[in-house]
Amino acid sequence: MTVVSVRSLSTRRGAAEVLRGIDLEVRRGEVVAVIGPSGSGKTTFLRALNYLTPFTAGEVTIAGHGLRPGMSERRDAAALRAVRTRVGMVFQSFNVFPHLTAVGNVMEAPRRVLGLSATAAETRARTLLARVGLRDHADAYPERLSGGQQQRVAIARALAMEPVVMLLDEPTSALDARLVGEVLAVVGDLAAAGQTMIVVTHELAFARRVADRVVVLAGGEIVESGTAGDVLERPRAAETRALLGMAGDGR
Amino acid sequence: MWRGTIALAALLAACGRLQGDDPVARMQARGTLRWGGDMQGGEPYVMQDPGDTGRLTGFEVEIADALARRLGVAAEFVQNDWQTLIPSLERGDFDVALNGIEVTPARRARVAFTRPYYAFTETLVVRRADGGTHGLSDLRGQRVGTLEGSLALDLLRAAPGVQVVLYEGVEEPYLDLERGRLAAVLLDNIIAARYALPRPALRAAGTVDEGVYAIAVRPDQPGMLAAVDGALAAMMRDGELRRILERWNLWDDRQPRLGGGGPLRPDGGSRPGLTLAYLPLFLRGAAFTVIISVLAMAIAITGGLVLSLARRQGAPLVQAAAGVYVEVFRGTPVLLQLYVLYYGLAPLLTLDAFTAAVVGLGLNYAAYESELYRAGFDAVPVGQTEAALALGMSRWQALRRIVLPQAVRVALPGVANDFIALLKDSSLVSVITVVELTKQMTITAVDVRGWLAPGLLCAALYLALSYPLSRLARRLERRLAPAPA
């Protein structure tokens, strides 16, 4: 069953085209890794999927709810919320709420958006924090948490809405190398549990291990797409080969 | 401590005496008789000539000119708040004080007076519709207006049960009487005739007492007293004073009785000091200051929030209107805003003084608070809003639950600092007749004839209020200093 359907998605920033006609279908339980050089439009693509970045052409359907070009935060608030409550977003820079504890971060949306009682929201939040390995840090404020811990709070926060799909935008690229592993482990566990995910990442080893499919984005287009094994072991597109070569040099 | 202050004052006075020789000789060497008065007293005393700004006119200006001429010098006007004419005379800011100064026992204890130059009565004015009021005894429990430091004030204080409301100008009490904010006004007949009786809605309800104006001279300058009094006596003898008064329509059958007697030396009457009996009055003033400040701040905090949200999220027209509001209220003096709110809007909206004070200060500070919130909102990264929206929160929820709490943290130390500023700015509301801490101080200073002790007490109370707040502000600044992650 298709959870995410993207057709001819295009965006511009001013006169410049950032995405030029992206097509993608994601089935339930599938993990898609999006890789590509900097500036290829990966982050824009992910943000367009819940309309944090508006798009200029094409269409996106998530769990039956559509997004079209030219929607407005004010006018189309209901339609946007219908999509966003079903999409979990994890940002490169965590964006945890500094004025709330870890459990407060996770409880907030279930309470305010789904209308859960405080008790129900807290039970859900503590369960999720335990799942991401933060049982003992549930009552800490973000300033007391490491970057890796903050990002795990952010993952729990997104999961609390029970999203049909999780969008992770380079979830480890703002982290010290020694903290990357704990976050990737959590994401790996989610994948194993059958969570549908689209992950923008530079971690090729992680993509190879976890992703069902790897999509290579370059110049705002999908230049190659296939199983992790095919794309990463036997790349066909020149951009993919360049990317893998660069990644190899970088390590 | 007081003993030390007195010793210091005596020392300074002695120095002054050593340095000064004969004040009359000094005046003649300078070539001017420096006389103190307040142009705000207005017509017919002393006022700016509407046809020729920079020139003064008024019957007291003519008296001063005539006196100076007779002393062989020119008259030089020194502008001074009416209430503080006596302390300024004592400081030596001018040679004589000549501005409707009523000879009262309290003043006689302090300075010397020439013979009187005008006999006045205290006229009680009420609304024409009010047929039942004939004297002070009919005004028990009612609000009656007068000028601070006047003989009328002494009379009102002595009248049982009358609530006294103090003004600094002569027009405002009659405006408030017309608007129903007062039940009556008691002031000198000259003032009543010029400012009250032309108003068709008001009528004179009777004469309460009478008194005289005289020229005040420093008590340690008998030579100056004799010279000025002699010149005045000559003006009375040859009819010049009468001609001046007639020119200003001030001559009446009370005036010919003046002229007898001579100068009045200080009578050495008791000089009441600042005693503990004043403390409850000061505490009451301080309580008013706190109440006004807290209520005004509540308006400022909510109003500022509404303004900053309007500027941030409102429709273009709303944004523009909020912007204009902030610029106007920040760009004009709060004193002016209080005047406009209380007196200017009175025909449309008659607020009582307390409400006008709270609303006026609140509206003014709202403009400042909105700027603090704006800085607070700007300090919250856009990723916070995006994270909230991505969770399905509405724009309002994202603002209310996520952005606002963080913005407030950034704004909080500034808000605390503004509250301290407001505590002190609240002294401005005395212009619209509210008696708070500073006003209590000036009233007491007139009563005890000294500014130092009441001033220090007043300052101590302000400090006691503001110091804990500034400690709090500093603690907030420290605690909230690390920028949100």
Describe this structure in words.
The complex is a heterodimer of chains A (251) and B (485). With 251 residues, chain A is of the alpha/beta class. Chain A has helices at residues 42-48, 77-84, 102-112, 118-131, 147-159, 177-192, 204-210, 228-233, 238-250, and strands at residues 2-13, 16-27, 31-35, 57-62, 65-67, 87-90, 165-169, 197-200, 213-218, 221-226. In chain A, the strands form 2 sheets. A 6-stranded mixed beta sheet of chain A has the order 6-7-8-3-9-10, sandwiched between helices. In chain A, a hairpin with a 2-residue loop joins strand 4 (57-62) and strand 5 (65-67). In chain A, helix 3 packs across helix 4, helix 3 (102-112) runs parallel beside helix 5 (147-159) and helix 4 (118-131) crosses helix 5 (147-159). Chain B has helices at 2-19, 23-30, 59-70, 85-91, 105-108, 151-158, 172-179, 189-196, 222-237, 240-247, 279-313, 316-331, 334-344, 353-379, 382-390, 395-425, 437-448, 452-479, and strands at residues 32-37, 47-48, 56-57, 74-79, 96-97, 112-113, 118-127, 143-147, 163-167, 184-188, 202-213, 216-217. Chain B is elongated, with a radius of gyration of 27 Å. At the A-B interface, helix 2, strand 6, helix 3 and helix 5 of A face helix 15 and helix 16 of B.
In brief:
Chain A has 251 residues and is of the alpha/beta class. Chain A has helices spanning 42-48, 77-84, 102-112, 118-131, 147-159, 177-192, 204-210, 228-233, 238-250, and strands spanning 2-13, 16-27, 31-35, 57-62, 65-67, 87-90, 165-169, 197-200, 213-218, 221-226. In chain B, strand 2 (47-48) and strand 3 (56-57) form a beta hairpin.
